[in-house]
UniProtKB/TrEMBL annotation, chain A:
InterPro entries: Na/Glc_symporter_sf, Na/solute_symporter, Na/solute_symporter_VC_2705, Sodium:Solute_Symporter. This is Predicted symporter. One of its GO terms (molecular function) is transmembrane transporter activity. Keywords: Membrane, Transmembrane, Transmembrane helix, Transport. It is a multi-pass membrane protein. Residues 581-606 are annotated as: Disordered. It comes from the Bacteria. It comes from Parvularcula bermudensis (strain ATCC BAA-594 / HTCC2503 / KCTC 12087). Residues 581-596 have a biased composition (Basic and acidic residues).
Length: 606, 93
């Protein structure tokens, strides 16, 4: 079969699975819709969390970024996995014990304040919309690069699918779809990695190949990559030009950001109890680690392969027949530009500029020893997608990778849509504006806001074409989550003296400062020499998180202590199985109570 | 369905003791978390890079692989230790 046929085959097969699950798992109540009835098994939830959280950035961009950054790419590897340790140890079990539907729900109830709830809604929407733009861009890239569908149509197809299973099944539909999406993703990611590892090192496990010798040579793969790179004027792969402080800050922003991401946190509300939440975080990291320990291997293999095939290749222009010309070059003992390069060149992601006019492609680093200028500028986002072609793997592998990339983007988009729709229907409508609303009405509002959010996300994706690399856009969402949401959730659990004034100031200061810093340096003309402590915008969330923590503590200490009810509540959630309803925090809504048609008692003014 | 099960309430001394054990465990595991990621992977990377594991410099390997394996282990150690702690206080089941 032809490669495009394979690609359509895998994409259609996976999409019909998603739709089938949506129909099978229709949500019947808000409990189903928001938290999948609280009865998802920890291992299943771990798998869903892994898919939810591994986005287009993890699947499509990360290996490419690491391939170019070398050691510097470790910030993504450590940051995006280390956050799960924080989540498991500091947040997930306690939030589950608290037992609500959403992150703003926790904030509003723990800080006994509708205002704090609304600010948390704003933070959650901010983080989620920043993140979703990156996902939609990923969907567009996968569709336009492989299926010949225009970018815009790619986004629309993706949106229709998500629309169907998110509005119909809510969290329940999303959960089981994500389980399938995880399987698609991990299979699609590891199969080419295994092939490539076998080709380059002869080891089946890419994780082993990563630390082994090149096949048939007495030199390790990484050492060979280092020499190859320095010979061409690049940095050594195992070194970085980032300052240690910047590495620490970016890693921290990604770690604490992961722990503060609302779409990840709500996944832990779907399990039965605190114990299940802990296991679930562990399983999530196991499933994530399968991909994350493969990624650095994929990255180094891809870099080595890319240089090997592109550097010194004779370029073939579009006005001659590629096959004849390539055969002629090979016959003359030369190296023709590979066919996959010509394929990807059309997308504009692999520009070649023959600066010295010799018709040969010179790929060089900034310190090129032979004085030749670099002529090839590959886009980092294409590496995972183009990797199977680079390694000359069979057509079905390529189709599989496309389906995997779409699964990654769609699963995360769906998780984010759940945050957006629950923030609007539950926190804004039910808990803030119309407390008398019945469960049935709320479910309708939840479906309607999920639908509206899908449309908004699609529009955002269409405008995201002009945004920088997918992984970098996503990194901003992490900074925002780290600085605005993590501190108040953390303090809300571990410091019972934390009050509503502190929470509001902490959230707002973290959100505004991080947002301003990123906008100023990315779009407002700021230059790197103006960086605060030399920390780049990707890592600034980490610095402002400490500021937000300090402001939260400071403001709490100079304002009135929280009511006794809240202090009791905080003590309850620390000890599993002892959670009881507490006055102000639970007024009108107790965990897991079925409200049926009667609606909620109005929440009295504070 | 109900989460709010009637569990034997701990006396306030027991609750304090439980919470301080849980905190000690959390802080201990976070110290390891810090040591393998920021410690081995970033701060002492150059020192560790003189050693190697397979064909990879050790500090670099920790930053790209080793830390992740340790993270997984840490969460499961936490799960087991918390289960034991809960059992000792008759909590959680």
């Amino acid at each position: 079969m032809d490669q495009t046929v394979w690609t359509w085959f895998f994409v259609l097969l996976s999409f019909s699975a998603y739709l089938g699950i949506a129909i099978w798992s229709r949500a019947g109540s808000t409990n189903d819709f928001y938290v999948a009835g609280h009865d998802v098994h920890p291992t299943v939830n771990g798998m869903a969390t892994a898919a939810d959280w591994m986005s287009a950035a993890s699947f499509l961009s990360m290996a490419g970024l690491i391939a170019f950054m070398g050691y510097g790419g470790s910030v993504y590897l450590m940051g995006w996995t280390g956050g799960y340790v924080l989540l498991a140890l500091l947040l997930a079990p306690y939030l589950r014990e608290f037992g609500k539907f959403t992150v703003p729900d926790f904030v509003g109830d723990r800080y006994y304040s509708t205002f704090a709830r609304v600010v948390a809604v704003i933070c959650a929407l901010f983080v989620s919309f920043t993140y979703i733009a990156g996902q939609m861009k990923g969907v567009g890239v996968a569709f336009s690069g492989f299926l010949g569908v225009p970018f815009e149509w790619g986004i629309i197809i993706g949106m229709v699918i998500v629309f169907f299973y998110a509005t119909l099944g809510g969290m329940k539909g999303v959960t089981y779809t994500q389980v399938v999406q995880y399987c698609v993703m991990i299979f699609a990611y590891t199969v080419p990695a295994i092939f490539i590892s076998l080709i380059i090192t002869g080891h089946v496990l890419p994780q082993v190949g990563f630390v082994s010798n090149v096949r048939g040579e007495d030199v390790s793969m990484l050492a060979k990559l280092n020499t190859t790179l320095t010979d061409l004027g690049f940095r050594e792969y195992t070194s970085t030009d980032k300052s240690m402080l910047d590495v620490i800050a970016i890693t921290g922003a990604l770690m604490f950001g992961t722990a503060g991401l609302p779409h990840v946190i709500i996944r832990f509300f779907t399990v039965k109890n605190a114990k299940a939440a802990r296991y679930s975080a562990g399983w999530a990291l196991v499933f994530i680690a399968l991909l994350y320990t493969t990624a650095p291997a994929v990255a180094s293999f891809a870099r080595l392969n890319f240089i090997d095939q592109v550097n010194g290749a004779t370029y073939i222009t579009d006005d001659v027949d590629y096959a004849t010309e390539a055969a002629a070059i090979t016959a003359a003992g030369g190296k023709p530009v590979p066919a996959w390069y010509k394929d990807w060149e059309k997308s504009g992601y692999l520009p070649f500029e023959d600066k010295n006019g010799d018709g040969v492609m010179q790929y060089r680093g900034p310190n090129s020893p032979d004085g030749i200028e670099n002529e090839v500028n590959p886009n980092r986002d294409i590496f995972v997608l183009a990797n199977p072609q680079i390694a000359a793997l069979p057509g079905w592998v390529i189709g599989l990778v496309v389906a995997g990339g779409l699964a990654a983007a769609l699963s995360t988009a769906a998780g984010l849509l759940m945050v957006i729709s629950s923030a609007i229907s539950h926190d804004l409508c039910r808990r803030t504006l119309f407390p008398m609303m019945t469960d049935k009405t709320e479910l309708r509002v939840a479906r309607a806001s999920a639908a509206a959010a899908v449309v908004a996300a699609g529009l955002l994706g269409l405008f995201a074409t002009s945004l920088p690399f997918v992984a970098q856009v996503v990194a901003f969402a992490f900074g925002l989550a780290a600085a605005s949401l993590f501190p108040i959730i953390f303090l809300g659990i571990f410091w019972s003296r934390m009050n509503k004034e502190g929470a509001v100031f902490a959230m707002l200061s973290g959100l505004i400062s991080t947002f301003w810093y990123i906008v100023y340096f990315k779009f407002g003309g700021g230059t790197p020499d103006q960086y605060l402590f030399g920390v780049s915008p990707e890592g600034i969330g980490f610095v402002f998180m400490f500021m937000s923590l300090a402001i939260g503590i400071g403001v709490s200490l100079i304002t009135a202590a929280p009511p006794q009810d809240i202090v009791d509540l905080v003590e309850d959630i620390r000890i599993p199985g002892t959670r009881e309803p507490h006055g102000i925090a639970d007024k009108g809504m107790q965990p897991d109570r079925d409200y049926g048609e009667e609606g909620l008692a109005p929440i009295p003014a504070e | 369905m109900s989460d709010v099960q009637k569990k034997p309430r701990l006396t306030s001394d027991e609750a304090k003791a439980y919470w301080s054990s849980a905190l000690r465990l959390t802080v201990g595991l976070l110290a390891v978390w810090f040591a393998v990621s920021y410690g081995a992977g970033v701060i002492f990377r150059e020192f560790l890079d003189q050693f190697s594991i397979g064909g990879a410099p050790l500090g670099f390997w920790f930053a790209q692989q080793g830390a992740i394996y340790v993270f997984v282990a840490l969460i499961f150690i936490y799960c087991f230790a918390m289960n034991r702690l809960e059992r000792r206080y008759g909590l959680g089941g």
